[in-house]
Design a protein that fits this description.
This protein has 330 residues and is α/β, with parallel strands linked by helices. The chain has one domain: Alpha-Beta Barrel (TIM Barrel), CATH 3.20.20. It is 29% helix and 20% strand. It contains 11 helices and 13 strands.
Amino acid sequence: MRIVARSENQDIATVTIAELDNGNLIEFVESVQPPIPRDKKWVLIVSTMVGCPIGCPICDAGDDYKGKLSASDILAQIDYLVRSRFPDGRVPVEKFKIQFARMGDPALNAAVLDVLQELPEIYDAPGLMPTISTVAPASCDAFFTSLLEIKNRIYRERFLLQFSIHTTDPRLRDWMIPVRKWSMDAIADYGKTFYRNGERKITLNFALADGMPVDPDVLLSRFPTEMFLIKITPVNPTYQARKNGIRSLVTPEKETYAIIDALKDAGYQVILSIGEWEENHIGSNCGQAIIHYRRKRDAMKEGYTYPLKTVSGTANVRAMDLKEVMNEGK
């Protein structure tokens, strides 16, 4: 893996673009959440695929899908970011989140399961908290069965599972997530098996677009408030969202939302997860900086305004196999 370009604001986030041995490009992110310092919370967001086959109309990662990444290619992203800041592999961060959520749905790649099993052996990271964010593709039952076993055996209260739903309207949900997927009933059934008392609640994520309904009664009929929480995020400025005429209901100018009040009244814990709006300009939110590296696109004043800088002298990162990385981490 060869580091080729970077878009960054060291106080907020960095997007790194790397070229694999086969010439494919991937990207990954590290970020902090001001004013929380890095030693309190540090987030890595890594790719599990080259592009994504799902093609959601709000996400640029569906551009030019070229396949799944190996476990070693996923680990190479993590290892590059970790050892850039903590060369000895000791990560003294209270909340060290690794999100398998940059390019590709992790449930479509069984190599993610291998990485999850080995991470605690590679790094001395007491705050390690993996995060799987998925639309729950219908073909991935075996993945979710194995994920449950790994969580129960290794992570328990240190694991975050998020299902992207976006709307409670079935027809519009099919449009927002154009792939065969679990029904909301199936997600609820799995979540009730996945969750144990004392563990973190399962997240139902809604990238809240204008005109996409979220009905608290529909959710209450399936998702118990003691097991599930609701996360509301903006629809980030992407080329796909602009192309498909999708506008975010969550904006920098607005602080209160009727749907959030309604969800709270229904008994749900609700997180309005906006982060730093500057991340849109860095390109570290949902999108694909690779688009700008490969070819010039129309300017977008809401996002992608930071320059993508070619990395001088390009750094090479060897994609080691799992056993080799484990041995180096010990």
